[in-house]
Specification:
mainly alpha; 5 helices; 158 residues
Length: 158
Amino acid sequence: MKDDAVIRQELANMLILRQAHMIFEDAVEDFPEHAYNMKPLNLTYSFWHLLEHIRLCQVDILEYILKSDYVAPNFPDDYWRDEDTVCTSQEWQQTIDQYLADRQTLVNMVMNPETDLQAQIPHAQAGHTIAREILIVGQHNAYHLGEFGILRQVCDLW
């Protein structure tokens, strides 16, 4: 395998470092408990729904990479909690903890020199590699974390 330490570090950095966008930890830091289930104006989802969506999509891609018997969830329903579902403070923290644990699993995978980032995932669609999936996770997370930050600003929750 060629020396790809630089690309490994860049992929990991995209997931965990504050670079061109805020990171997950920035978005959720000191978020007020009274607003966990708040639905900003004209939205059908709450702040917690949005965090859960980010988490659900990330774990879906992790499972896609790892599980040879992977079955895709139904889109979009299985990627969002029901709009009437509310969370407790414990569930809010579970969402955060699970997101961070799954993200660390992805980082560990990327940083493992035994992981072939460019090889086709054996059970995946043609052309789907670990590198591709990590890029999708990074893009998706950045997109929705930006949305989370903007909604936080609009709702005066910073």
